[in-house]
Amino acid sequence: MPFDLTVLTPHLDTLLAGALLTAEVCALGIVGAFTLATALGLLAVGRGWAGRLARLYVDVFRNVPFVVQVFFLFYGLPEVGVYIDAFWTGVLALGLVGGAYGSDVVRSGILAIEPGVVEAAKVSGLSRLAIIRRVVLPIALRTAIRPLGSVFVNLVLSSSILSMITLDEVTGTARGVASETYRPFEVYAFLLAAYAGLTYAVSLGIDALHRRLNRHMAENGAAPGATHGVMGRTA
Prior knowledge:
Elements: H1 12-44, H2 49-62, H3 66-76, H4 86-111, H5 115-123, H6 128-158, H7 170-181, H8 184-220
Subcellular location: Cell inner membrane; Cell membrane
InterPro entries: AA_ABC_transptr_permease_3TM, ArtM/GltK/GlnP/TcyL/YhdX-like, MetI-like, MetI-like_sf
Domain ABC transmembrane type-1: 19-210
């Protein structure tokens, strides 16, 4: 049977709607993952109870299969009176697991900052919060942003699991079209292209952010070093 993409024409609106829904859930999940990863990374470098809780959270979410986390949120929580629809379950699940994986990247970026940078900020009279916001995070993210991009790309790929909780994202939509048209080759070729496009868009965004952070750091004359243990003195 010859390859013929025209068989998808009657279903193109459905497939594009699924791709758009995947893009939406992934975009919101990535925002949540980035926010959570930053917070957990900052907490995890500390030695107190907050740091221990942050590291425990990371250990738990990194050692439980993503599909189990999704099923727990969608099918388990209603048993205790918590109901979340499929879309927001997907956003929450991606944000929670992405935050766990991303926190180690942020933490590594923080630990790589030269101690003298933080000491100089203290001497200048900046408050603890100002040091974190204006010194630590900008420098740490310059180091961490590319590895974080890999985490976010993996979130896009993991989003295919969300079709298992009735979310009409692109994988679930493609599966339905394939069963209706009996043309799985063309349908899944579209699916391959859709995920390639989504992950490429994430990569482009990370590259743009990396250039912006590098330009900002160059203008301020700061650069991350390789000495560990910075936040141990500031936590």
